[in-house]
């Protein structure tokens, strides 16, 4: 049996540090744009629903300020995106229970 060709591996230089933002989301509010931080090439932004969010809290991540709620997150769930800047991401809460997101991103080495 022939082996499948493997995708070429790309290694990214180490970063100078890691940032973390906490975003508190209240029900019945418009989506919030994340604070703007540049994301180095090859790095990603990790967005995690706070594990301490109340049961039933569903926060979501989207690429548009209005319209669809593209990625719902229950407490302790996470999703990663490759974007150039964190301000390309909008977040909100589904339903009547507030929630909090933890956003981790890296700093580019000088």
Account of the 3D structure:
This protein is mainly β and 110 residues long. The radius of gyration is 16 Å and the shape is globular. The protein has a 4-stranded antiparallel sheet, with no helix packed on it. The chain is built from no helices and 8 strands. Mean pLDDT is 80; it is low at 3-7. Strand 4 and strand 5 form a beta hairpin. Helices cover 0% and strands 38% of the residues.
Provide a brief overview of the structure.
The protein is an all-beta fold and 110 residues long. The protein has no helices and eight strands.
Strand and helix order: EEEEEEEE
How many E strands? 8
Low-confidence stretches: 3-7
Whole-number average pLDDT? 80
Query: What fraction strand?
Result: 35-45%
List the strand order in the largest sheet: 1-8-3-6
Structural class: mainly beta
- Cα-based radius of gyration, to the nearest Å: 16 Å
Largest sheet: 4 strands, antiparallel
Q: How much helix, percentage-wise, in residues?
A: under 10%
Query: How many DSSP helices?
Result: 0
| C-alpha geometry | globular
Quote the distance from N terminus to C terminus. Answer: 47 Å
Outline the secondary-structure elements.
Layout: E1 17-25, E2 32-33, E3 45-49, E4 58-62, E5 71-73, E6 78-81, E7 90-94, E8 99-107
Antiparallel strand pairs: 1-8, 2-7, 3-6, 3-8, 4-5, 4-7
């Amino acid at each position: 049996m022939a082996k499948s060709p493997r995708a070429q591996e790309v290694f990214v230089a180490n970063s100078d540090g890691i940032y973390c933002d906490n975003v508190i989301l209240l029900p019945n509010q418009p989506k919030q744009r994340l604070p703007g931080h540049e994301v180095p090439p090859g790095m990603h932004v990790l967005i995690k629903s706070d594990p301490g969010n109340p049961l039933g809290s569903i926060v979501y991540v989207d690429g548009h300020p209005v319209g669809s709620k593209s990625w719902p997150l229950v407490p302790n769930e996470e999703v990663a995106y490759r974007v150039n800047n964190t301000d390309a991401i909008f977040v909100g809460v589904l339903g009547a229970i507030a929630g909090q997101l933890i956003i981790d991103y890296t700093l580019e080495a000088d």
